Amino acid sequence: MSLFSGLSAFPITPCDDAGQLDIDALQRLLARLTEAGVDSIGLLGSTGSYPYLTRAQRRQAVAAAVEVTRDRVPLLVGVGALRTDEAVSLAADARAAGADALLLAPVAYIPLFEDEVFEHYACVAGATDLPLCVYNNPATTGFTFSPALLGRLSRVPNIRAAKNPAAPAGEMAAAHEAFSRAAGADFSLGYSGDWHATEALIAGGSAWYSVAAGLFPEPCLRIVRAVQAGDYEQARRLNTALEPLWALFRAHSSYRVIHAAAQAMGITNARPPRPIMPLPERVRDDIRAVLEQLASRSITR
Question: Is the pTM of this model over 0.90?
Answer without folding.
Answer: yes
